[in-house]
Design brief:
Layout (H helix, E strand, L loop, with lengths): L2 H10 L1 E6 L6 E4 L2 E4 L6 E5 L2 E8 L13 E7 L4 E7 L4 E4 L2 H9 L1 H4 L3 E3 L5 H8 L4 H7 L6 E2 L4 E3 L4 H12 L5 H11 L3 E3 L21 H9 L2 H11 L4 H16 L4 H15 L2 H6 L1 H17 L2 H10 L2 H12 L7 H18 L20
Parallel strand pairs: 1-7, 4-9
Antiparallel strand pairs: 1-4, 2-3, 2-5, 5-6, 6-10, 7-8, 11-12
Helix pairs in contact: 10-11, 10-13, 11-15, 13-16
Length: 373
């Protein structure tokens, strides 16, 4: 980091102060994480803007060491000081009363030596993956609880008189031999449900592919082009603004890559497929698809190797889906700048990964509806 940048971040950068975080636990912001020591109190010189803060607590009594990862998006203002406190009972970060916050803010110079500087050398990498995520996207998608959890949280369903009677009846009807004993144990297991407010509120990709009253020829077209389903989603969630959907693509990728949330990986795949197979949308929104190619370029570089195998080698999701995108962007009606960028991106992937986009995969053969059916 040059001196001008360092001085600017020192003067304009934000602070995140975390009190009481356990030694040996993991704390991270964006692409940077640390196993903290006993004197850790947070991070300073944070560039203003959107960041992702995450943590995994360490317990000396836990043979597994670090617990599951939790995190949240935080939009820092210039010079902002955010103070939070670790709650050992809930193993989570709590808000701090205003008077206590002021105490730490007024003593931030004394805390400075306990704050790690934001690793600016990875900041451009972070921006390349999040430049279309804004606070409106975060507010729309994040769980009601405000946390992104790497594993789903479950709780027992409330027991009622009716449910207890049903369980007792089931037990009475079971013959207590060796085989049915196992079934009785299952009956006695508590019913679990996801903790309310912890689910990421992702957009639902419409299952309806074509309008009511479509002719067989139109149905064939809609089966080959997802623009109708895409437009339904945009109307429902983003006021017809396709650019905002790219923000969700980036949001899902960050929640998967850094938040370690597997459901987000599945959502990312759904949205990538939807956009890649919407040829008419690419004609209508060339600037958005220019951004989409840029997003894919940076995201593909960051996919962890174990997931890369899953979406390339095992089921060919990425190569098959990108084949659809490249075919759509070869259309005569495609903007020339977008077409050239698509060709360059395809060439880059072929050279780097040896992927073959020249042949038509059987998996994506057109679906044709017979007029006589």
């Amino acid at each position: 980091m040059d001196q001008v940048t360092a001085r600017n971040l020192f003067e304009q950068g934000a602070m995140f102060i975390l009190i009481g975080f356990p030694e040996g636990s993991e704390f991270g912001i964006d692409y940077n994480s640390w196993n903290v020591g006993p004197n850790f109190k947070g991070v300073k010189m944070i560039p203003p803007g959107l960041h992702f803060i995450y943590y995994s607590s360490f317990s000396s009594n836990d043979q597994l060491g670090l617990g599951p990862r939790s995190g949240f998006f935080c939009n820092f203002l210039p010079k902002e000081v955010i103070v939070r406190k670790w709650n050992a009972k809930t193993e989570d970060i709590d808000l701090v009363p205003e008077d206590e916050q002021q105490k730490y803010k007024s003593n931030k110079e004394e805390l400075d030596k306990f704050l790690g500087p934001y690793p600016y050398e990875k900041y451009k990498q972070w921006v390349s993956l999040t430049n279309l995520i804004n606070i409106d996207i975060v507010n729309l998608l994040e769980p009601e609880c405000g946390r992104i959890y790497s594993i789903a949280l479950f709780e027992s369903e409330a027991s009622t008189t009716q449910s207890r009677k049903a369980a007792a009846t089931s037990m009475a009807e079971v013959n207590m031999d060796l085989e049915t004993t196992q079934r009785s144990k299952k009956v006695m297991l508590p019913k679990l449900k996801k903790v309310q407010g912890t689910k990421i509120r992702y957009s639902s990709v419409p299952k309806k592919k074509f309008p009511d009253g479509s002719t067989p020829a139109e149905i064939s077209k809609y089966n080959m082009d997802s623009t109708y389903a895409l437009n339904l989603l945009l109307a429902e969630r983003f006021d017809h603004n396709i650019g905002k959907l790219l923000g969700e693509v980036q949001f899902a990728f960050i929640c998967f890559l850094i938040g370690q949330n597997y459901d987000s990986f599945e959502q990312w795949k759904k949205l990538v497929y939807l956009l890649c197979t919407s040829g008419d949308a690419a004609i209508q929104h060339p600037d958005v698809y220019l951004d989409f190619i840029t997003i894919l370029h940076f995201q593909i570089r960051e996919i962890p190797s174990e997931f890369f195998v899953d979406i390339v080698t095992r089921n060919n999701f990425l190569t098959l889906t990108l084949h659809e995108l490249f075919q759509n962007l070869l259309s005569d009606n495609i903007d020339s700048k977008l077409k050239q960028k698509s060709i360059s991106f395809q060439k880059h992937l072929t050279e780097k990964f040896k992927w073959d986009f020249s042949t038509e995969p059987d998996d994506y053969a057109p679906v044709v509806v017979d007029d006589k059916q």
